[in-house]
Input
Amino acid sequence: MSALLSVSDLSKSFGAVVVADQTSFEVAPGAAIGILGPNGAGKTSLFNLITGALRPDAGRIEFQGTDITAISAAGRCKLGIARSFQVPHPFEGMTVFENALVGATEGAGLRGHAAEAHVLDVLEDTGLMPKANQRAGGLTLLERKRLEMARALAAKPRLLLLDEIAGGLTEAECSALIATIRRVHAGGTTIVWIEHVVHALLAVVEKLIVIDFGRKIAEGEPRAIMDSAEVKEIYLGVDPDV
Output
């Protein structure tokens, strides 16, 4: 099966700070992949490179077999790549419905009744229907996180990138979010998820990628990766010789 996303030898640095060090990996259609790494490892920068917010110094990004390395962020969104942000930034003066409608019109290119019907489906899927007419500025943290996902899903992505979407939530809120992400994935959306809340990540993903200082240090089955001595030392701060 051809990869949906292929990242090849991607490199990016800001002076002496390396955020991507010849990073390579593939994402199959329908996959759910988690990305782990300590703070400052380059995880969000990797998302910025994939979505076009940053341009790489070297390397290549392909989506659905097409080289998108030089395509704009807006162009990549229209091709089917959408993301949430670690810190939610909704249009606070607009309603939840209107926020998601931006994704449907600007990302998916929908108009009129088709756009509105799609947004209603997305709000139902993400548990935001009761808040549809509420201004986004009055949402709780969980609701803002859901709105980040809803706005991205409204763009009809084939690939959804989630950045620390479980951070700051209570255990009950996290469980509810996991259930939503599982539904989204079961509906056919490919997911790549950066997350520090490891138990949430392991409840959804089928493969883990671990990066440190922009370099991929491990990739594979989640439990095997979490049991790796190198991962325990770099990510969890556990000395493997103790």
